[in-house]
Amino acid sequence: MNLIAELKKLKCGKIRAEVPLKEYTTYKLAGAARVVIYPKDIEQLKKLLVFIKDNKVKYKIIGNGSNVIFATDYYDGVLIKLSEFNDLVIEDTKIIVGAGYNLTKLAYQVSRMGLTGFEFAPGIPGTVGGAVYMNAGAYKSDMGYIVSEIKVLTPDLEVKTMYNKELDFHYRTSFLQKNPGFICLEATIILKRGNAEFIMDLIGERKKRRLMTQPLEYPSAGSVFRNPEGNSAWRLVEAVGYKGKTFNNVKVSEKHANFIINPNGGSGIEIKNLIDKIREEVQKQFNIDLIVEQEIIE
Ligand SMILES: Cc1cc2nc3c(=O)[nH]c(=O)nc-3n(C[C@H](O)[C@H](O)[C@H](O)COP(=O)(O)OP(=O)(O)OC[C@H]3O[C@@H](n4cnc5c(N)ncnc54)[C@H](O)[C@@H]3O)c2cc1C
Description:
Uridine Diphospho-n-acetylenolpyruvylglucosamine Reductase, domain 3; four-stranded mixed β-sheet; Uridine Diphospho-n-acetylenolpyruvylglucosamine Reductase, domain 1; five-stranded antiparallel β-sheet; alpha+beta; globular
């Protein structure tokens, strides 16, 4: 089957074939993917998923690629990008936003309006959908505190509303992560009225701190490991001597030992190998099994 030709016939959104992964991942990974599609609406997305399932094609929803590692030189499948799902409605303290909307941009927009609750999000370079999936968060807050409900496409291709309680939000995880067939289409977020000046000052302070403590000048995907109960992942990585270590094209950051940076266009395979080495060493020296926060896609 000529996949690209068949997909073009289907008319399910803009298509890009043989795309460099560096354009779809904040790690700026080496390698390529067979095709990326941008469905415009739910009907196009459904049509695409029916085709994918009928033809047993590999696929992955991709947000801003800020939490993923493609551990392969070639992703032989379809990446589905929901950047066209970017409607935004603000009704007083209630925000209804498409899954493809940029999280940082949204957080700045509503914070400037004097809405409080989203101060944790600037600096998290994902989409709304990716943030719900990951239950992204910082400063003791996360999406679970502000998302009241989401609109999902179920594996049976039904559109359904799921409420906060059903979404099983916990530290960097959610119902969506445990049930990968579900796709977030839209989220409803409830904030509170606050003082815009105070909120923006807090965001500014946090931005300064991130710039000082995180290697934001290099491609990365944020924290590599989850913090184990009562410990910090960076402390463990440092304790086993990996801080600042270079392996081929990739490196454990000197600024923050829980970041791997990719200054020389390395591949996801290199990053995965480095992660494996760190985990092995932490297991050996501390008997702790570090859980990888980033998602490894084969
Ligand atoms: C410099 C830097 C700093 C960071 N700081 C933080 C931080 O402070 N806190 C934090 O939590 N994270 C942080 N991250 C990690 C990352 O930004 C978050 O995990 C973010 O939520 C990922 O969103 P994304 O859109 O990029 O998702 P992607 O990386 O594209 O995808 C992640 C997963 O979500 C799934 N997904 C994406 N969209 C949807 C959808 N609509 N429906 C269903 N599944 C979907 C994908 O299939 C994939 O499995 C940081 C990353 C970087 C690079």
